[in-house]
Amino acid sequence: MSFETKATIANFGGQLLKLQHQSTSTGTPMDVNLFLPPAALSGTSKVPVLIYLSGLTCTPQNCTEKGFFQAHAARAGIALVWPDTSPRGANLPNETESWDFGAGAGFYVDATQEPWSKHYRMETYITSELPAALFAAYGDKLDAARVSITGHSMGGHGALTLYLKNPGKYRSVSAFAPIANPSLCPWGVKAFTGYLGDADKEAWKKHDATELVKGWKGDLKALVDVGTGDNFYKAGQLLPENFEKAVKEAGVTGLELRYQPDYDHSYFFMSTFAGDHVDHAAKYLFA
User: Which of 7, 38, 141, 282 shows the smallest number of beta carbons within 10 Å?
Assistant: First the structure.
């Protein structure tokens, strides 16, 4: 599967590639951005990869342009991948009517309900198809054996759940303001009802970090930041305290959960702590 390069941009001594490819998982073209640090361009060795999953309404451009991860990744010698948050152009009924469901809001699950199940297969896309395509196309630069994952809000949910569901696939996980207990918050209930149906809510637990962590074995290798000034945190959309409680009750070690005074849900928050999250990934990617 080949990528079309839409743009090549010099950035912090490396290259930012804006790519597009035809996805077999979603049945649509998918945009993805890839940052190659200077170490990847030298040709001496492959570099590890940090996948960043974005939040509701976002495209690959948002964090690329406002997250300022590239400066830290260039220093650390880590490639960055920013996938899209959903299929685009599937032309499903009501697909673009809500900002928190449908286009831009795939929730990193494989939908089981019609009409979403044909195209909204973001879990398969993120965990299987996209990395396989990237490592096939850039295998001389990217190290498939060293991958970590991070994300924001809906993407924080995606990072945590995909990490917990796939032990060994990722070296570490981190999240900014994740939707940490989606089965119990309005955003998650809406998404899970639409994509997974509400006849069997036990199935929701397979996509809920607070439920999944109860079965985790070993060190979690997780960093989570939440801003105390985040209105979505205040409204009960994120529920990191439920995740933290589940971790403690399960006897799981390795969670660093930090409540950052006054920070909100925006890229001002993420850009402030981006370096910490790149460094967290680097600790395990270079171990």
Answer: 7
Contact present, 163 and 65 (Cβ < 8 Å) = no
Residues acting as catalytic residues: 153, 230, 265
Which of 204, 172, 200, 175 has its CA nearest to residue 188? 204
**113 Rama class: left (phi>0) / alpha (psi -120 to 50) / beta:** beta
Question: Tell me: the pLDDT tens digits for 145-163?
Answer: 999 999 999 999 999 999 9
Angle at the Cα of 122 (from 222 to 253), degrees rounded to 5?
Answer: 15
pLDDT tens string 61-103: 999 999 999 999 999 999 999 999 999 999 999 999 999 999 9
Q: Is the pLDDT of residue 1 over 60?
A: no
Model-level pTM greater than 0.70? yes
Q: Is 111 exposed, middle or buried (0-12, 13-18, 19+ CB in 10 A)?
A: buried
Give me the amino acid identity at 101: F
Cis peptide upstream of residue 115 (ω within 30 degrees of 0): yes
**Once rounded to an integer, what is the mean pLDDT over residues 173-195?**
98
pLDDT for the residue 159 = 99
Structure tokens at 177: 């303001």
DSSP at 98 = B
